[in-house]
Design a protein that fits this description.
The protein is α+β, with helices and mostly antiparallel strands. It is built from 16 helices and 17 strands. Among the domains are: 238 residues, Beta-Lactamase; 142 residues, 2-Layer Sandwich (Heat Shock Protein 90). A hairpin with a 2-residue loop joins strand 6 and strand 7.
Length: 606
C-alpha cells in the first residue's frame, strides 16, 4: 500500500524552487545579470528601430514644415517690404507734386517737364531694390513712365490691372505671372494728398514688377522645389514641376498646414504645404521621396552600431564588475573566519601586497569590519581597567562631597573667632571668601542675573580691597533696570582678576577699575576698563587669538567668550582693546533683553 509521502515531497520541492536563485554563487548571478542586460539591450534596440521608422514621416513633416514656414515667412517679409516701398513711392512729396501738376496742367510742355522729373525721381527707387524688374507709373492722362528692365505689356493686361487698382481704392492688388510675363506685379492707385489736405483724388496708378526667381533664390535655401500658388494660379515658379490642377483640393485639409505623399508621372513626392494667413497664398515644398530615403538607412545603421557598442560595453563591464565584486567578498570572508577563531589581531592586518580597500560599499564594509575587530580587541583588554576606574571615580566623588562641608565649617569658625576678638576686617574677608567658595562650587545655575553676578564681584573686591588698600579704586555704573539681565556665571570676576593681576600688581600707583553698562540698539555692553600699563599690539593680538600662555589657573578670556556665544549666539562675545600707557578696555556684548524686575535698586561705586 502506498504511503502519503509523495505529496509532502512535492510540496517541499515547490517551496525550495524560489530559493534556488538566492543560493546561487555570485559569479553565476552576475552571468545571469549580464545575459539579462544583453537581452534587454537587444529589446530596446528593436523598439528604438521600430520607433524610428514609425516617427519617420512625422520627422519629415516637421523638418519640411519648419523649412517651409521659414521660407514663406522670409518671402512674405520681402513682399511686405516691397509693399511698403510702393507706399513710400505713392506718398513721396515730389512724386505727388509731379502727378498733381500733370493732372491739372493743360500745357504739353509742362506735362513733358513734369514727366521727366517724375522719371528722375523714380530712378532713386528702382536702384534701391534688387528684387524688382521695373516700376511703371500711369498718370492722369494715361501716359506711362517705365523704369528698370521693361518688357512690353499688352493693353488688355494693363486695362485689367487698372480695374484691379481702382477696386483696391489705394490698397495693393496682385497680378500673377502668365505666359507673357514671369513677374509678379503689384498694382495700386495713387491718391492725392498734400500736408493735411486729403482730397484722395486719383492722380495715377503704379505697377511694380517683382523678380520672383531672384527673390526666392536670394532669401531662401531649402531642399526640394518651392511652389507658390493662389487657387490654380501659379505665382512661382514659372514652369512648376507639378501642375497645381493635378493636386486634388481634398489633399489640402482644413488646417493651414500639413503634408501628403503623392505620385506624379511614376515618381513619389513628399509634399508639405502651408497657407498664408496674410495673403491667402499656399506655399508648397515638393521633395522627391527617394532623395530623403537615405536617412532611413542611416537610422537603421545607427541602431545596429549602437546595439553592437552596448553589447560590447555590457560584456566588458560585466566581467570587470564580477572581478571587482567577488574578490573583496572572498577576502572579507577569510578575515571573518579568522575572527571566528578568536584571532582578532591577524584578522585586522592587511597583507603586505594588498592594496588599500576601495571607497565603494564593499570597501566601506571591509573598513568597518576591521574597525569592529580592532574595537572588540580594545574592549576586551580595557574592560577590566575601565571597571576599576569607575570604582575609583565613585570613591573620589564621595570624598569631593565631604571636603567642601569641612571647609565651610572651618571658615565659619574663623569668622566667629575674628568677631570674638573684634577683628572686623578678618571677619569681613572670611565671609567674602566663603561666599565666593559657595558660588564657584555651585553648578546648578549656568546663567545668573547681573545682580547675582555683582554679588560675587563685590565679595571678590572686598577681599582685594583689604589686600591692596587705597591702591585699588573700583567704580560700578549700572542702571537698576540692567540688574535683571542674565549673563553666564563667573563672567565679570575673572575679568576683574585679570585687571588686578596685570594692571594693579605690577604698578606702585593707584589703579582705577570700572564696570559700566551701555545700550546700543539690540545689544547691551558691559565694559570692564582699567588705567593700568596696557598692552602692546603683539601681546594684544596673541591674547585675541588665545595664543598667550597665562601665569594663573583661572578662567581664560577665550573660555568666557565661548560661554557667551554658547548661551546667546555667535554674534555675541567679548572684545579687547588696549593702548600702552593708557589702559585696557574689555567689552562684554550680550543681547539687549531685560527680565521683569521685582524691585528697583540703584547701583553705586565702591
Amino acid at each position: 500500500m502506498c504511503t502519503p509521502k509523495s505529496p509532502s515531497k512535492e510540496k517541499f520541492i515547490v517551496q525550495t524552487r524560489p530559493l534556488h536563485f538566492r543560493h546561487m554563487r555570485i559569479k553565476n548571478k552576475l552571468s545571469l545579470l549580464i545575459a539579462s542586460i544583453v537581452a534587454i539591450t537587444f529589446t530596446i534596440a528593436l523598439i528604438v528601430q521600430q520607433y524610428a521608422f514609425s516617427v519617420y514621416d512625422e520627422q519629415l513633416y516637421q523638418k519640411s514644415s519648419t523649412v517651409l514656414h521659414l521660407s514663406s515667412s522670409v518671402i512674405e517679409q520681402e513682399l511686405q517690404r516691397i509693399e511698403q516701398l510702393s507706399f513710400n513711392i505713392i506718398t513721396d512729396a515730389q512724386i505727388q507734386t509731379h502727378l498733381r501738376t500733370i493732372a491739372d496742367s493743360e500745357s504739353e510742355y509742362d506735362m513733358l517737364i513734369q514727366r521727366q522729373r517724375l522719371a528722375d525721381r523714380l530712378l532713386y527707387y528702382v536702384g534701391s531694390e534688387p528684387s524688382l524688374h521695373s516700376i511703371h507709373i500711369i498718370d492722369a492722362h494715361g501716359k506711362r513712365q517705365n523704369l528698370g528692365r521693361v518688357i512690353p505689356i499688352s493693353e488688355n493686361k494693363i486695362s485689367s490691372m487698372l480695374i484691379q487698382a481702382g477696386e483696391g481704392s489705394g490698397q495693393e492688388r496682385w497680378t500673377y505671372p502668365d505666359a507673357s510675363d514671369p513677374a509678379l506685379i503689384l498694382t495700386r492707385d495713387i491718391r492725392s494728398y498734400s500736408g493735411t489736405l486729403f482730397d484722395l483724388e486719383r492722380i495715377g496708378t503704379i505697377f511694380i514688377r517683382i523678380d520672383m526667381d531672384r527673390l526666392v533664390h536670394q532669401f531662401t535655401s531649402q531642399e526640394g522645389d518651392l511652389m507658390m500658388i493662389s487657387g490654380h494660379d501659379v505665382i512661382y515658379p514659372r514652369l512648376p514641376q507639378v501642375n497645381p490642377a493635378e493636386i486634388p483640393s481634398s489633399f489640402f485639409k482644413n488646417d493651414n498646414h500639413g503634408y501628403f505623399i503623392r505620385e506624379w508621372e511614376g515618381k513619389s513626392y513628399f509634399t508639405a504645404y502651408r497657407k498664408s494667413a496674410e495673403t491667402g497664398w499656399t506655399y508648397i515644398n515638393i521633395t522627391p521621396f527617394n532623395e530623403i530615403f537615405k536617412r532611413v538607412l542611416f537610422i537603421k545603421s545607427l541602431v545596429i552600431y549602437v546595439f553592437i557598442f552596448i553589447f560590447a560595453v555590457a560584456i566588458l563591464w560585466g566581467v570587470r564588475f564580477s572581478r571587482s565584486l567577488t574578490k573583496p567578498i572572498e577576502n572579507l570572508m577569510a578575515r571573518m573566519k579568522l575572527a571566528e577563531k578568536g584571532n582578532f589581531a591577524e584578522a585586522n592586518v592587511l597583507p603586505p601586497d594588498k592594496e588599500p580597500p576601495s571607497r565603494d560599499e564593499l570597501g566601506l564594509l571591509q573598513r568597518t569590519f576591521r574597525l569592529m575587530v580592532e574595537r572588540i580587541n580594545v574592549l576586551i583588554t580595557e574592560n577590566y581597567s575601565s571597571q576599576l576606574l569607575i570604582k575609583e571615580t565613585e570613591f573620589k566623588a564621595l570624598q569631593a562631597q565631604i571636603n567642601p562641608h569641612f571647609l565651610y565649617n572651618t571658615l565659619d569658625s574663623i569668622n566667629w573667632m575674628a568677631k570674638v576678638n573684634k577683628q572686623a576686617q578678618i571677619s569681613e574677608m572670611v565671609q567674602a571668601l566663603a561666599f565666593l567658595l559657595r558660588n564657584s562650587i555651585n553648578l546648578k545655575e549656568s546663567l545668573l542675573t547681573l545682580e547675582e553676578e555683582l554679588e560675587i564681584v563685590k565679595n571678590y573686591i572686598t577681599i582685594q580691597k583689604i589686600r591692596f588698600g587705597d591702591r585699588l579704586s573700583f567704580h560700578l555704573e549700572l542702571e537698576s533696570v540692567d540688574l535683571q539681565r542674565r549673563i553666564p556665571k563667573l563672567t565679570l570676576q575673572p575679568l576683574l582678576e585679570n585687571a588686578i593681576h596685570y594692571a594693579l600688581e605690577p604698578s606702585i600707583h593707584p589703579c582705577h577699575i570700572a564696570v559700566r553698562g551701555l545700550t546700543d540698539q539690540d545689544l547691551f555692553i558691559l565694559v570692564v576698563e582699567d588705567d593700568g600699563p596696557g598692552m602692546d599690539n603683539d601681546t594684544l593680538e596673541r591674547l585675541r587669538q588665545n595664543d598667550m600662555q597665562t601665569n594663573g589657573n583661572g578662567i581664560g578670556l577665550l573660555n568666557i567668550d565661548e560661554r557667551i556665544k554658547y548661551a546667546f549666539g555667535d554674534q555675541y562675545g567679548i572684545t579687547i582693546d588696549s593702548t600702552p600707557g593708557t589702559g585696557t578696555r574689555i567689552q562684554i556684548i550680550i543681547p539687549n533683553e531685560v527680565e521683569e524686575s521685582s524691585y528697583v535698586q540703584s547701583s553705586s561705586g565702591r
